[in-house]
Amino acid sequence: MSDKxxxxxxxxxxxxxxxxxxxxxxxxxxxxxxxxxxxxINRGETLGLVGESGCGKTTTGRTIIKLYxxxxxxIIYDGVDISKYSQKQMLDxxxxxxxxxxxxxxxxxxxxxxxxxxxxxxxxxxxxxxxERMNLVQDLLKKxxxxxxxxxxxxxxxxxxxxxxxxxxxxxxxxxEFIICDEPISALDVSIQAQVVNMLEDLQNDLGLTYLxxxxxxxxxxxxxxxxxxxxxxxxxxxxxxxxLYSHPLxxxxxxxxxxxxxxxxxxxxxxxxxxxxxxxPSPIDPPPGCRxxxxxxxxxxxxxxxxxxxxxxxxxxxxxxxxx
Length: 325
Ligand code: SF4
Known about the structure:
23% strand; globular; alpha/beta; 325 residues; Rossmann fold; four-stranded antiparallel sheet
């Protein structure tokens, strides 16, 4: 998709979760959380991944870092296919690939001090000990805008924004190259969101990081992303360079998501046409054939019932999966 150096490539990544027998679903049923998703991320780039809750964006992130074992597909990191690596083989990659979680409170152990939360990964990977370890932790706290003397405090003594900064410091402790940011600002006050996004951008510039930035807030994702992928019910339906996606959205679902972004100017906002999606999101358990968006799409035609559209290139770095094109 681009000439730049690719750091991560996922090819047909698939993650199905078996559904235990229930009254409704008998036999071998699966939640098709991620279904044949492919994209690349270049070194130093931020790829935004957006979609409604349940679209598979978080499962995609967790499968890439192998918190979930992929059902099928390839995860090629810096030229090496790690999709079938054991947890032991993944230890090296866990240093290179880190994750920042959505809920900074739930993801931090409330009984550990900040120093031990951040230092844990340093210990696991044997990166530093004693005074050197303490200096490293204090430097990380400073890097994320906290005080060095916060090292002996506990998570409950911090605000939500500060706790997310602790989570970011923890992910940086092992000097990663690639970070999956899983809705890192969704649980934060709007006033704090921009601060955390700006800090992530500064860290990216300073440390040469590569991000997969998962979000449902399209306005913030534009600010930080070079390219954006849109997911719907386990499928990647569109991917393009950020400005291109915002100015020329092609998939009817992307168009609807963009039309829902609030505009601060009341006149502009009144003039804007909001596309209201009708119909229910279908169940991800054994979804019917054809396009998964068909029940909510006003452009649906007979072929949409039969064939699941594949991504098609529509311009430089712009791909869409829709039978309209
Ligand atoms: Fe709509 Fe058909 Fe395109 Fe799906 S493939 S988004 S149903 S037009």
